[in-house]
Amino acid sequence: MAFELFIGLRYLKAKRKNNFISLITFLSIGGVTLGVMTLIIVISVINGFEEKMKEKILGVNSHIVILKQNREGTIKEYRSIIDLLKNYKRIEKVNPFVYSQAMLSSRGKTSGVFLRGVTASYISQIKDFAKIERVSFSLPFNKDIIPLSPPLSKGDSGEFDGIIIGKELASKLNVKLNDFLTMITPHRRGSLQNSLAGFKRFKIVGIFDSGMYEYDLNLAYISLENAQSILGINDSVSGIEIKTDDPYSCDEIVRNVRSRLKFPYLVRDWKEMNRNLFTALWIQKIILFIIIMLIIVVAAFNIISTLIMMVIEKTKEISILRSIGATRNNIRKLFIIQGAVIGIAGTLLGDIGGYIACMVLKKYQFIKIDYTIYYIKTLPVIMDPATFLIISAYSLAICFLFTFFPAWQASRLNIVEGLRYE
Predict the structure, then answer these.
(1) pTM of the model
(2) pLDDT in tens, 16-29
(3) 311 near 404, Cβ under 8 Å?
(4) How many degrees, rounded to 5, is the angle at CA 420 between CA 418 and CA 422?
């Protein structure tokens, strides 16, 4: 192989009669570099976006949810289930909750929300709620300090109970801390007396910023007791939420809980509940990977052009090598090495360029995006070594495969024809 490597590198470095071949060689390297660098940046951004989405979802939602498939859609025996779940070592927190749709209105403005009735300790467990102390937005927020603990007690609200809403909902209803909201809920009982209980006044005791526009616009939290009362479900809950020690490896807990709680109970983890979102992200990643990989394929066609023209230019030298004992296999290897060197150089430069670009994006965050659509303000970047390895492997494989035809063509040259006019 030393012979083929030596001659192949000499061919690449030697001055050419036709400068156009040198230009195409540099364009080939540049094309591979551009494709690899672009692919690394795009996949790293998608990885960062996916990780940010997971963080925000886990910041608001529990890791596992237990529901009951019955006509009422409620769990009456939730206390015994909670006692059962406390025996699992990897389960850290268990909280019952009530879930329903409701209407909130204030000063003639109305908005539909998803109402969640939770325990007082629940809010403090949600990291994205617990870390918010101030809403630093323009009016109507007035930079109010947001007291989130205890968030749902009557306390300063006097005869009114507390409610926590998202900052987007507060902006839509034009309300701020300590303002009042009227809640209208669909009641589950049939009597006129109970149906009137679906109207209730609440005082805003907290405004949260989860980082997810849909959550901040559509979620509202009240106490579990208030939710049970206003919905008329007595001492029942809609479901039970579970927080584990590691949300990324809760499959075993789900299997164990499912083995204990058979039908009509439904046990789902956060990945199942957001499967459509993560599937869409995965499909998007694959599509972008294929599209951008076409840049490398185009560059690989340039490699073919470079090697074919090099074969034409070096016909005499190839014939001389054949005449002094070089085999067809030696000639094939010689040109495969040239194509491989172009591919390796382009891939290596693309890796370096992609790494530098990702570091710049990660550090300076100068590209701003629409928060209301993507739930983030700047491009998130997560560089995964596996991403670099996979992209590099694909790039090298494509470049290597595209060298076979010109290498085969060079090995088939007729020695007599190549030396006829020498």
Answers:
(1) 0.72
(2) 555 555 677 788 88
(3) no
(4) 90
